[in-house]
Automatic annotation (TrEMBL):
Belongs to the OXA1/ALB3/YidC family. GO terms for biological process: mitochondrial respiratory chain complex IV assembly; protein insertion into mitochondrial inner membrane from matrix. InterPro entries: YidC/ALB3/OXA1/COX18, YidC/Oxa/ALB_C. GO terms for cellular component: mitochondrial inner membrane. It is a multi-pass membrane protein. The chain crosses the membrane at residues 267-284, 322-343, 355-373, 379-396. It comes from Vespula pensylvanica. It comes from the Eukaryota. This is Membrane insertase YidC/Oxa/ALB C-terminal domain-containing protein. Residues 178-395 form the Membrane insertase YidC/Oxa/ALB C-terminal domain. It is found in: Membrane. GO terms for molecular function: membrane insertase activity.
Length: 439
């Protein structure tokens, strides 16, 4: 059986000047740019001279057996006439179209993948594929190594070890089982840190909302004053606009300084909650895996975790085999997001809609991730999500807002729970109607 891979290898390793193949008719192929193909075609002629004439078989690259004994003209180069090209007629079984056309149309040695069937697939392409594959392998190995090193550094850091020792101390001091210790530690951190910061964040937001209404009258006065100054001092419109914008910015900064409500203070809660989440997550992980030092002390704590569960999760060092906690975590996070969306009185912007969609995807992504972590971590995440839900419902209460001295705003609802109930009811009815239409 004749193989054209040798031929393709020689042709594709030529000089950068690529020869142009032009099909004149269904039986003849002429080649331009003679000098660049000269040496390779001589080698091809020597290798296939006998096989092309005497072989009764088919071409390996998918050329079907001959439908007729037609003649194809193959270009060869005479060694004695190096600057001339002539046609040598060779008889072999082929199709009614040219060899190049058949190779393009039929499946290649590598299968029917279009990447390999195309006529421009060469050994250079093979080399590129290997280089790309090797690059991705190196990049993946590098990312994995960096990830492992990062996990190791965080797990052995001083804050994580302090949090880990604090959990052990709380468990020893209270005498509670480990599941109750995790719930108690999470609730204490939420009550003492997250809730006060959330109240402070709501206070800042309420002040900023009231300042925006106060700013309306200030901008009106500044606009009138700018027009008067333009006629009085003969300012241009561009200069007047710049002076007006400068005055508005200065007035806004003065109001923020007066009420001590800079918008950047809203991210304090994020800066505190994220480190707490990381510290507790890695601390519980260390306890379950006896890290960083697998000594007798760590082994005793591990044994306590294996028997310190409840209900269907007796072993907190193992995964939740019933997948109950992962599903509850995902559903609780989704409820948190949907309540935040329903309680908005204004139509969200495109950016806000994008954030809500992203948070929904993250909440759903936790469901398949949580079954692969110890049950102690799932229990902590579940407790944190439930507390966030309760905190969100508490912060919309007008009585609690007056108790914590959060200023009253126009967007505040007098009966928020009734409003939320109606929103949930309308959402359920809308989805039910949509399901009926789909059926």
């Amino acid at each position: 059986m004749i193989s054209f891979r040798y031929c393709v290898t020689h042709i594709t390793n030529l000089h950068n000047s690529i020869c142009i193949f032009r099909k004149i008719n269904n039986k003849t192929i002429y080649i331009s740019s003679y000098s660049s193909l000269k040496n390779s075609l001589v080698n091809i002629n020597n290798h296939f001279k006998t096989q092309l004439i005497h072989s009764p078989d088919i071409v390996n690259n998918g050329i079907s057996k001959g439908r007729s004994n037609q003649t194809n003209h193959i270009l060869t180069i005479s060694r004695t006439k190096q600057n001339s090209i002539y046609q040598k007629q060779c008889k072999f079984i082929s199709t009614h179209t040219s060899v190049c056309n058949v190779i393009n149309k039929q499946s290649s040695y590598f299968g029917t993948n279009p990447l390999f069937v195309k006529s421009d697939f060469t050994t250079r392409n093979c080399s590129n594929v290997r280089q790309i594959s090797s690059f991705f392998e190196r990049a993946t190995d590098s990312l994995y190594t960096n990830y492992v090193n990062l996990i190791y550094v965080i797990s052995g850091s001083t804050p994580v070890e302090f949090t880990q020792d604090s959990l052990v101390w709380l468990h020893t001091y209270t005498g509670l089982p480990w599941w109750a210790t995790i719930v108690l530690a999470t609730s204490l951190l939420r009550l003492t840190i997250s809730l006060p910061l959330s109240v402070y964040q709501q206070n800042i937001n309420a002040k900023l909302e009231n300042l925006k209404h106060e700013m309306v009258g200030i901008t009106t006065n500044l606009r009138r004053k700018s027009k008067e100054d333009m006629f009085r001092y003969e300012w241009s419109e561009e200069y007047t606009r710049r002076m007006y914008n400068r005055s508005v910015r200065k007035a806004w900064k003065d109001l923020i300084v007066r009420d001590n409500c800079h918008p950047m203070k809203n991210i304090f809660l994020l800066y505190i909650e994220v480190p707490i989440l990381i510290l507790l997550t890695f601390s519980l992980r260390n306890l379950c895996y006896m890290f960083p030092e697998p000594n007798i002390y760590a082994y005793e704590i591990y044994n306590e975790l294996t028997t310190g569960g409840f209900g269907w999760i007796l072993n907190l060092a193992e995964i939740d085999h019933f997948f109950i906690l992962p599903i509850l975590i995902g559903l609780t996070n989704l409820v948190n997001i949907e309540i935040a969306v329903m309680m908005r009185l204004r139509e969200p912007t495109r950016l806000q809609k994008g954030f809500f969609i992203f948070f929904r995807l993250v909440a759903l992504a936790i469901i398949p991730l949580a079954p692969y972590i110890p049950s102690s971590l799932s229990l902590y995440w579940m407790t944190s999500s439930v507390f966030s839900l309760c905190q969100k419902l508490l912060l919309i209460s007008p009585k609690f807002r007056r108790l914590t001295r959060i200023p009253e705003t126009e967007s505040e609802l007098s009966h928020p729970y009734s409003y939320l109930y109606e929103k949930i009811k309308s959402r359920i009815n809308f989805e039910a109607q949509l399901m009926r239409k789909l059926k």
